[in-house]
Fold this sequence. Notes:
Number of strands: 9
Distance between the termini: 90 Å
Largest sheet: 7 strands, mixed
Shape: globular
Order of helices and strands: HEEHHEHEEHEHHEHEHHEH
CATH class of the largest domain: Alpha Beta
Mean pLDDT: 91
Number of domains: 2
Amino acid sequence: MSWLTEYVRPKIRTLFARSSVPDNLWHQCPACQQMIFHRDLATNRKVCPHCGHHMRATTTERLDWTFDENAYTRIELPKTVADPLRFRDTKRYADRLKEAREKTHTDDAITVAHGMIGGLKSVVAVMDFNFIGGTMGAAVGDAIIAAARLAVLQQVPLIVFTASGGARMQEGAISLMQMPRTVIATRLVKDAGLPFIVVLTDPTTGGVTASFAMLGDIQIAEPGALICFAGPRVIEQTVREKLPEGFQRAEYLLEHGIIDMVVKRTEMQATLARIIGLLTQKDHQAAA
């Protein structure tokens, strides 16, 4: 073989060969199908710069976006019986829990933390739809109660970011009992004269909507969020009628007085800080 084949050709191939490119540098918007560079998406807090679609976020992202300077302290939540009914459908419930924990790096579908928002102390609970659809079982009920008690103990507002498919069927009646338990938790906060603020994100449905999610002193929603008890497809099949455009979306609910405001994710922290300041201003003046 000549020196051209043995030396020159490999050098040319190496020089002009394509470098390996990671497959996670670009993300496609599920609404407008436009491609978005990952850094631009992260800077814009997972909001499509082309159409404004709000993509689903992780628990850590929510907390980082909400608290001042990404500084907060997560609290240890009560431990519950992992599989009280030893439930099995296409796979064991215990296996579903294990897979969800490995995927999300959280113990269950909710995380509670406390810190400063706009310089004001707050307790924040965040639900994660990536954990078995954000469904509410005993662990979520216990977490909401723990968050409410912490807010009362610290005399600060409680903010809950909801994202859920409803009650967790693998826990049967136990999951349904979390509805009255979480309602009682909201009463603890309100009876203490503290603000209870709910931020409804996509999607918030089922037993979560039918319990604590609709009991906030202030009801905020992200643009385009689906907020309902039963989904539009189920309702259409039940009433056999075509639903209005945007039915059960945040903007439709705002127009019909169900929620108080629709706030873009990039403006959420500033909005929460302003609301907390307004609702607690009297207490600060009295303390002064």
